[in-house]
Design a protein that fits this description.
The structure is a single chain. This protein is mainly α. It has four helices and no strands. Helix 1 packs antiparallel against helix 2, helix 2 packs antiparallel against helix 3 and helix 3 runs antiparallel to helix 4.
């Protein structure tokens, strides 16, 4: 499992970097993805027993499901296929880990 967590962390870092270079036509999708990154990072910290940092953790309303992430990947597929593929990889990793 630690290997899966490390791979997920690396994929999240790549997703974060890609998100920073994307000009999405839909700002709501961009906000959801940014919130998803924070939510997933918080879940990983919690899983590792690290207390959440209040300044970077999303509010409970910002929590997203893997279904929402998969839908975002579908929306981004046409304009940003690399970002969409990375996002699908995150969804698959989260599903395998039960997060």
């Amino acid at each position: 499992m630690p290997e899966d967590v490390q791979k997920l962390r690396e994929t999240l870092a790549a997703l974060h970097a890609e998100l920073g270079t994307v000009e999405s036509a839909d700002p709501e999708v961009r906000r959801m993805l940014a919130g998803a990154l924070q939510d997933i990072a918080a879940k990983l910290r919690s899983r590792d027993g690290i207390p959440p940092a209040a300044a970077t953790d999303p509010t409970p309303d910002a929590s997203v499901s893997t279904g929402q992430l998969a839908e975002s990947a579908r929306i981004l597929e046409v304009e940003h296929p690399t970002l969409a593929a990375t996002l699908r990889g995150v969804v698959e990793a989260l599903t395998r880990m039960g997060i």
